[in-house]
Structures are given as C-alpha cells and as structure tokens.
Amino acid sequence: MKFKINRDHFSNGLQQVLNVVGSKATMPILSNVLIEAEKDHISLTTTNLDLGIRCKIKAEVKENGAVTLPVKRLATIVRELPNVDVSLDVSPNFQVKLASGGSHFRIMGIGRDEFPPLPEFGEERSFTLEQVELLTMLKSVAYAQSTDETRYILNGVYFNFRDGKLTLVATDGRRLALIAKELEFPAASAGSIILPAKTVGEMLRLLEKGAKVNVSFNERRASFQIATEKDTSGLVENIYLFSKVVEGSYPNYQQVVPKETHQRIKLERELFLQCVHRAALVCSEKSNSVKIKLGSNLLEITAASPDFGESHESIAISYSGPELQVAFNPLFLMDPLRALTKDEVFLELKDEVSPGVFKTLESFICVIMPVRLS
Predict the structure, then answer these.
(1) Which of 144, 151, 286, 330 would bridge with 170, disulfide CB 3.0–4.6 Å?
(2) Torsion angle, CA of 173/254/363/244, rounded to 10 degrees?
(3) Average pLDDT over residues 122-150
(4) Phi/psi at 7 (nearest 5 deg)?
C-alpha cells in the first residue's frame, strides 16, 4: 500500500475516529485504526466492538492495500509533521514508512485480518432526517441520561419512531426530557431503540457536517450514515457510525408527564437561566437547591447555605394566581434552559411536592422532580 495525503486532511480524519477507541482496549488490535487505500481516497475505521466508526479522506493512492496502526500515537505524529505533504508506504510485513519534509518514521503495523469487521446490516428499518434537526433534538434531551450503571436501561436516549413522528426521551429518574418531531415513514417501519450514551456523545460531535443523516436499526444495532459537505476538511462521502443498542424495554415515560398543572408562566429563557445560575452560586453539596416563589406578577429565586450565605433574584412576570413556593436542584433547571435555543419557555407548577414542567411551543417537555422544602 502506498499513498500521498494532505497532513491536515489526514489529521482531521484521525480525529473523527479517535474517540471510539477506549483507554483500556481489551485486545491490542482495538487500539488500532484500520487504514484502507483505494482509488482516490483512504478509509479510516476504529471500533471497540460496541461502537464502530468509518470515514473517508481524499488521497493520491498509488497502490491499494490495508494496514492497522496504533491510532492515538499515529494521530499525535501526523499532527506534529512539519510539511503539509505526507507519504505513507507499507511493506509486505506491515512495516510502515511515514515521511513528511525532513521527518521520517518507521512504525510497526498489524495486518487487517485481525481487525474485527464492522457489522453488516440485513433487514432493518431506515429513516432520513436533516442533521441539524436531529442534533437539536439530541441536545434537547441528552443531559437527562442516567450515569448510574446499575440502571443501564436509562444509560442512553430512547428513539421511538411511531404514529408519524420521532420522539426522543432521556431520564435519570429525577428528571425526564422529551422532544417530538413529525416524520413521514411507512407504518411497517415503526419501532424503537435505546441508543447508548457513548453513541449519543459521538452523534453530538459528528452531526452538522452536512445536510442529511440516514438512521437504520434492528433489534441489536443501529447505524448512522452522516453526509459530509465538500469542504477543506478532506472528508468525502459519508461518515458511518455503527452501534450496539441497549437491550431491554424502556420505562413507560408517559406516566411521568403530569396530566395537569395548575399554574403556567411564560419566561425569557436566557434571563431565567442567568438568574438561576447566579442564585446557585451560594449553593453547597448539603444545600443544593434553589427556591422558586410565585407571587403577584413576580417570580423570586432564592438560595442559601449555612456555611456561605444567601442570594435573591427577582423577575417581573405576568401572573395573578395564588402564592406558590417550590424548590429544585439548580442544575436540573439550568440543563434544559442551556440546551434550548428558542427564548420563549413556559414553566408549569402545581404545588411544592409535584414535579415542575418546562415546555416550549415545539413539542418539548422537561419534567423535574422538586426538592422537599424543609
């Protein structure tokens, strides 16, 4: 195998596939990137057996072939090369010569035969979305995923393709975020998957590189074909992401969404976020809550901790209902406010022991359990 490639393109391609490789690979080959050269591009593939990724980078290929190399070390070397022109030459025993300007490296590689193949898809459901739409939806819910590994079924985002819409849900048991979008697809394609948190993280990083993303899945795994724009990054065609799904049944999230709330107020998202953020500056691990108090045309946000002091913020609102006070973990209020982009948001409350609900005009709901007032 022999090819020439632009250093920055090569470096960018390696950055796309680097994250999948864990720091403690169970097999040495899983620390490697599979490099395949053909026609006018090279393919870069990495996998940790649960998650795999492949991208293509334009290159001047002189001899087709394949080799695997330690991806993290290779990425560091390529990034530091002195010249923009890089040549790579592989001998029959998988010894790789890498040259750029006055720099020359000789790296021991491993043949492609030991590299685990990415899964082949047979019968699967398939959907196409705008990348920017899927990215917005994922950002709207991803923060609510559980990090508790004993509740593995909640360690991801639930995708539900049903009734002519795509619904995304994430919950950690103390808060739940949900967003839905109308999507045309045949009824026979309806189905659902739980996408693991690691895969969600990769999707958040990779989306918005082009126009469309194709989602395919069956009961065991999912694949994402992410279109890339022709630009200066060197990427060509699509980035492919393959992932195992979390196996099991997602809890009935509709039971968590309150059927009725008594008070509804309209808020400016950015203003409310800033007030909660400032109020929370006095919180401590023991006193990690902010109080929301509704009064006549006034919303007050207070926080206090015995070892530091207290804070008080107030916002003028349109409200004529009864006085109401409820406390929340400030992070649970700030996460959805940071994730949303529209500035108009509604907060719905019932009483001090019932969940608070954030809503927007665009099928977004975030249910937050209150902190008991002492």
Answers:
(1) 144
(2) 60
(3) 92
(4) -55, -45
pLDDT (tens digit, 9 = 90+) per residue, 53-62?
A: 999 999 999 9
Same domain, 232 and 132: yes
For the record, the structure tokens of 94 come out as 């998988």
pLDDT band (50, 70, 90) for residue 260: confident
Which one-letter amino acid corresponds to residue 290? Answer: V
Can you read off the two tokens belonging to residue 357?
């609900």
- Cα separation, 29 vs 19, in Å, equals 15
Is residue 58 in a domain?
yes
Residue 221: DSSP 8-state: E
DSSP per residue, 148-188: -GGGGGGSEEEEEEETTEEEEEEE-SSEEEEEEEE----GG
Q: Which of 69, 92, 114 is the last residue of a domain?
A: 114
Whether the Cβ atoms of residue 139 and residue 201 lie closer than 8 Å to each other = no
- Amino acid letter, 143: Y
0.70 surpassed by pTM: yes
In the sheet that 165-171 helps form, which strands lie side by side, from edge to edge? 191-196, 156-162, 165-171, 175-182, 364-368, 356-359, 344-349, 263-268
323: nearest Cα among 349, 303, 302, 290: 349
* Residue 80 CA from chain centroid, whole number: 29
- What is the spatial distance between Cα 216 and Cα 240, in angstroms, rounded to a whole number? 11
Looking up residue 316, the CATH number of its domain turns out to be 3.10.150.10
